[in-house]
Amino acid sequence: MKHLSVFISLVLLGVLTSCSQLECGSNPDALLDNFENFVDQVGTLNLDFESKQWAIHDKRFEHFLEDCYEHHEEQMTKRQRRKFWLKTMKYLKIRYGTSVIRQLFSSEDANGIESFFDSSDFEDLKERFKELTQ
Fold this sequence. Notes:
Blueprint: H1 2-24, H2 28-43, H3 54-72, H4 78-96, H5 99-104, H6 112-118, H7 123-133
Helix pairs in contact: 1-3, 2-3, 2-4, 3-4
């Protein structure tokens, strides 16, 4: 009986891991397709800001941001990174409203949003997102 519970645990772990890998995709294009579908689906839900249903979507969003993006980041082109971060902003706008975007790119920000997306350094944006969503 003990061996059966260990076997079941290993199978469940394998299923969870494979689902996670499927969501991240096998390459940057697959990740972008999966992430775009996720954000678009969330956009159709029309959830209230305080809805408890956000918890599951926020968890998936974090997975895309912290696991999937970091897994594929080095392979991504500048265009793919820009597309990922624009979809990230779309999710945050759906989730928190436009004020979160204004917080990311305040008037004191010397670079501004236009010059930021002209650069290839997305580390600053990643850190800002982490600060705002914690």
